[in-house]
Specification:
The structure holds 2 protein chains of 2 kinds.
Chain A (H helix, E strand, L loop, with lengths): L5 H45 L9 H8 L1 E4 L5 E5 L2 E9 L4 E9 L4 E8 L13 H5 L11 E3 L9 E3 L5 H25 L4 H9 L1
Parallel strand pairs in A: 6-7
Antiparallel strand pairs in A: 1-2, 2-3, 3-4, 4-5
Helix pairs in contact in A: 1-2
Chain B lengths: L2 H6 L15 H6 L4 H25 L8 H23 L1 H12 L5 H9 L6 H30 L8 H4 L16 H18 L7
Classes of the chains: A alpha+beta, B mainly alpha.
Chain lengths: 206, 205
C-alpha cells in the first residue's frame, strides 16, 4: 500500500489514536483506586501538619483518627476540630490553577498552624506558598478578620502577612481564598470562641 | 556497530548530555536532590527505550509525512503511563517531579533518538540504543544530583550525611548556590570540560 496516499495516512492515524486511547483508558482506570488513596492520605497529612503532627502517608490514617474530628456546617460543607480549636479548609485559584490549604486556630482564633498547596504554580515563585516558610508566616495571626497578603506587610498587624515576591498573582489568589473562607467559616470561629461574641464581631468589622 | 557499543557509547563518546547536548533543560531542573534525579533518570530511560522499540517495530508502516506526529503520540502515551504509575506507587516523587514528567515528551533525547536511530534500525538495536542513551543521561543526572544534594543541603537521599560526620560543628556550611539551577549548568560545564580534556578527539578545532 502506498504510504504517501491520503487514505493510508488517515486510516493509520485513526487506528493509532484509537489504540493509544484504549491503552491509556485501561491503565488509568486500573490505577485510579491507588491514586485516590494517595490523595486522601495526603489531605490527612496536610490537616495533621497544621496542628503540628508530622505524619507519613502510612500512618496518616491512624493519627488522623486520633487527633482530628470531622464536623459539618449547616450547608454540608466540612470542617475539622481538634483538641483546643478548629481547622478550616481553604479553596481558591492561583495564577495557573487551583490552590488550597488548611488553617488551624485555637479558641481565641489565633492561628496555630497553616498549610498550603497548589496544582501548578510556578516553582520558586507562586509555588512557594507550599513551603513551610510561607505557612509559618501565618502562625500567631488572628482570624477575627480575613488575613491579607501584602508587600511589606505591617509586622505588628494581626491581619497582614508578607506576600511572595515574584508571586503577586498567586498571593492575590491566596488573599481571595482567605476572604472567601472567612465569609463561610468566620462565624464558626466566633461560635467556637469562649469570649464575648458581639465584642469580637465588632472588632472583626472594624 | 556492535550491539554492546550501542549501550556503551552513550556513556562516553556519544553521551546525550555532554556530547550530543540534548536534554539539558530537565537535567538542570530536577537535580537539586538525588532522589528526583534518579527517578527522572529511570523514567526517561524507560520512555526512550520503549519509544525506540515501538517506533522501530512500526517504522516500516509509519507514513513518512506524519512520522513526527506518530512519534509524538507514542512518546506521549508512554509518558502519561509513567506519570500514572508514579502517581499510584511513588506519590511523593511524582509531586516533586510535577511538571517535569510531562516535559519528558519534549525531552530532545527522546525525539533525537527516534529520528536518528529507531526510524532506520531493527527493534533489538533500537531498544539497546534507547537503554544506552537513557543510562548515559542517567549517569550525568545522578552525578549532578549527588554533588548538589551533598554540598547544597548536606544530605544524601534525605539522610543528613554532613551532620552525622560532624562537619557543622567545626564551622562547615551548606552552599546555597548548589541548589539553584545556575549551579547545575556550571557543574554540567565542568563535566563537559573534564570529559573533553580526557577525550581529545571530541575537541573542535
Amino acid at each position: 500500500m502506498n504510504k504517501f496516499s491520503n487514505r493510508y495516512i488517515f486510516i493509520y492515524s485513526a487506528v493509532l489514536v484509537a489504540v493509544v486511547a484504549v491503552v491509556l483508558t485501561v491503565v488509568s482506570m486500573s490505577l485510579q483506586p491507588l491514586q485516590e488513596r494517595n490523595r486522601q492520605a495526603e489531605t490527612k497529612q496536610m490537616i495533621l501538619k497544621t496542628i503540628g503532627v508530622e505524619a507519613t502517608r502510612d500512618n496518616a490514617d491512624e493519627l488522623y483518627g486520633e487527633y482530628v474530628t470531622e464536623e459539618e456546617l449547616g450547608d454540608g460543607s466540612r470542617y475539622y476540630t481538634f483538641e483546643g480549636g478548629c481547622i478550616i479548609p481553604l479553596q481558591g485559584n492561583g495564577l495557573w490553577g487551583p490552590i488550597w490549604g488548611y488553617l488551624a486556630m485555637d479558641e481565641t482564633k489565633t492561628i496555630v498552624g497553616a498549610v498550603f498547596d497548589h496544582k501548578g504554580e510556578t516553582p520558586g515563585l507562586g509555588g512557594e506558598i507550599a513551603s513551610d516558610k510561607f505557612a509559618s508566616r501565618f502562625v500567631g495571626k488572628s482570624w477575627l478578620k480575613p488575613i491579607v497578603l501584602k508587600k511589606n506587610a505591617d509586622k505588628n498587624s494581626q491581619y497582614e502577612v508578607d506576600a511572595i515576591s515574584g508571586g503577586t498573582m498567586t498571593s492575590n489568589g491566596v488573599t481571595a481564598m482567605l476572604a472567601k473562607a472567612h465569609e463561610k467559616y468566620g462565624m464558626l470561629a466566633v461560635a467556637a470562641s469562649s469570649t464575648d461574641k458581639t465584642a469580637e464581631r465588632k472588632e472583626a468589622e472594624k | 556497530m556492535k550491539k554492546l557499543d550501542l549501550i556503551k557509547l552513550p556513556f562516553n563518546k556519544q553521551n546525550p548530555i555532554t556530547v550530543q547536548v540534548l536534554g539539558v533543560c530537565s537535567c538542570l531542573a530536577v537535580t537539586a536532590q538525588l532522589k528526583p534525579a534518579v527517578v527522572m533518570a529511570l523514567s526517561v530511560t524507560v520512555v526512550v527505550a520503549l519509544a525506540n522499540l515501538i517506533i522501530s517495530l512500526l517504522r516500516k508502516t509509519i507514513p513518512p509525512r506524519i512520522r513526527i506526529i506518530v512519534q509524538l503520540v507514542v512518546v506521549s502515551m508512554l509518558v502519561v503511563l509513567v506519570d500514572q504509575v508514579l502517581k499510584a506507587y511513588m506519590y511523593d516523587v511524582s509531586k516533586q517531579l510535577s511538571v517535569f514528567v510531562g516535559l519528558i515528551i519534549t525531552n530532545c533525547i527522546v525525539m533525537g533518538r527516534l529520528e536518528a536511530f529507531a526510524m532506520s534500525n531493527p527493534p533489538l538495536p533500537s531498544l539497546l540504543d534507547g537503554i544506552g542513551n537513557g543510562l548515559g543521561y542517567s549517569v550525568v543526572l545522578v552525578t549532578l544530583g549527588f554533588v548538589r544534594e551533598l554540598l547544597g543541603s548536606g544530605t544524601l537521599w534525605g539522610y543528613p550525611v554532613m551532620e552525622k560526620i560532624g562537619l557543622f560543628k567545626i564551622g562547615y556550611e551548606n552552599n546555597g548556590l548548589m541548589i539553584m539551577p545556575p549551579m547545575a549548568l556550571i557543574l554540567v560545564g565542568i563535566i563537559i570540560w573534564i570529559h573533553r580534556t580526557r577525550n581529545k578527539d571530541l575537541q573542535e578545532q
